[in-house]
What we know:
MFS transporter
Amino acid sequence: MESYSEVRNKRDFFLFMLTAIFLGLYAGLYEPSFNNYLDDVFHISEVARGGLEFPRELPGFLVVFTAGLLIFLPDVRIAVAANLILATGLLGLGFLSPSFSWLVVWMITWSVGAHLYMPVESSIGVALSKPGQEGQTLGQLGAVKTAASLVGFLIVWLGFRYIDVQYTVIFALAGLCAIAASVCLLLMYPRQSTRKRQKLLFKKKYILFYWLNVLMGARKQVFLTFAPWVLIKIFEQPVTTFALLGIVGTVLGIPFRAILGRAIDRFGERLVIAAESILLVFVCLGYGFARELGLGNLAIWLVFACYIGDQLLFACNIARTTYLNKIADSPADLTPTLSMGITIDHLVSMSIPFFGGLLWAKFGYQSVFLVAAVIALINLLAALKIKGVRSVPDNTSATV
């Protein structure tokens, strides 16, 4: 007969899966819509789009401090607060953005919630995993989240293509999904840590993890900022295109994330991150030079392929989490170190888009992707410095 603790753990895992479903649905609604929303409603330039990333990413830089304000709470309670803040930002974007200034206010609110949730999501997933199966568990959760986002992408595609849905409706639905995720998290058992968590944690031992986060921060802006902007400004693609690309990426992402999780457990983080880096070089070159290859009308399909490949490779970030879990001195180090990693990541990512926008305006969009390819090569060199390590067998004391 199962013990009460085992039953409770299974219940919490189920609730966390439901949380992933609601947040996947929110992502499927929000992600294909936001960039076109900026272009369709506010008509901003590439320089303004790059500059907008500074306030959008600033909460990510400050996450270690905002998480510190809630340090007295278990991780699931921090997660509840994060998703309620996220929902407030989404509803504000939908209904209370009469001007660009108000857009920035609600975008920052959304960003605070989204970034506050990032480290605790990984920490909760690791804490609910069996020893040695952290990659598999995070891969399963990612696959569920990806599958749920498919529904969101379909709603966006059908809505904009057939019934001329408004952006307010999309943001309202996304906000309701974040509220539903908060309810699921609220029902989870708030385990208390047996070890004192630190508000700030910077250890020399974790330098390589921090460096990988710096490079991740630089790399991710290509996908989040400039890759969609190439499709919107250079190839004049509507929101329905992003919904369709999201659908394709989601369908491929379901098995990809599950396979990725097993690959991390079997082959290790070094090989996975190195392979990601090599593939990213080709993705960046495809973004930047598809039109120069003499492909004619087929050039857009190469960019579509790069966009989908980029979307899939984003999942490789879980390898950084499992790597940290393996080298951590104690489970209590995990959440504050993940928070510090996100802060360092955003120190880079909130500044690079502005300079990328200036680079685009002065030398053309190709120059942005050449720089991104160089960053991918540096990421490869960092990945090769990862040493083989064993999983920490005891994660029972991690806070959830």
